[in-house]
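=== RUN LOG ===
request id: a7f3
mode: sequence -> structure
chains: 1
length: 306
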Amino acid sequence: MPGFEVTTPHAQRLIAAFSQSYLVIPKFLAPNETEELLVRSKELLDEFSLQDHPLTKFTTGDNDHIGDDYFLTSGDKIRYFLEKDAIDDSGHLTRDKQRAVNKIGHALHQLDPVFGRATLQNDKLRCLVRDLRFHHDPVALQSMIITKQPQIGGEGTVHQCCSFYTSPPSALGFWIALEQCTQENGALSFLPGSHLTAPITKRFVRLPSGGTGFEQLLDHKHTSTPTGDYVLEECKPGDLVLIHGSVLHRSERNTSDRTRFAYTFHMIESPPYAVYDDKNWLQPTEAMPFPHILDTPNQTVRKIGA
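=== RESULT ===
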């Protein structure tokens, strides 16, 4: 069965399908491309050194999201963040380091050649972005390997990607399965259409007092979280999930004995089409600005679903 191809009719079907707020594209990466990313992910885990590591854990809750210096200065580095259940009360790992890491990020696409090829030198990806026309001039940021470790792989609580970036909101998530993703090992779930009914009520920012937290954008008294049935999307290795920045989505804890490796990153609009201010937790540097995806910007964009 052929893999993913970009054609004009395909682009039209893509846009129609994506109007529901997310889209699974089977076989976006060929088996050899997927395997290369998975092998490199495991090599990075082997290379992980605990010496001088601050044992920074990654959590996604509103009240305990990480915000230490190791996290805040990771935008131009490859850093390792641990599962909260992989460290005991004495600060020691409860398992091998390869099974203790929650995620690796956040500049894989710029610093690692394997992930660079999959992101910045990927013609299929560039054609998809061009055909979709979600952005005028998108830049890529926050690239991550999410491991979802067996038994302890933490829950990804309900969230919206647009809570983390620009004004106006412009985030688009790219999530590529590197292993089989099932209900048991933490596949993604979505509330279809919620990008039209769930306003962005908060924004994850650097706090003036240090660390990170959520800045409220709307009064909770005047907003309500949409309810409905979340749709579980089980994926095979190489499948790509496009995630509208406003859609509510989540993943459950990994209760299986298998990892659930995925490679994910975001694209956002760049100036002058959007503002990326110094409140954002992840900041580009002069030496490593966010890389542009397209050689020339799209002259027009489509407002997907709205």
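=== NOTES ===
The chain has a mean pLDDT of 87.
The radius of gyration is 18 Å.
=== END ===
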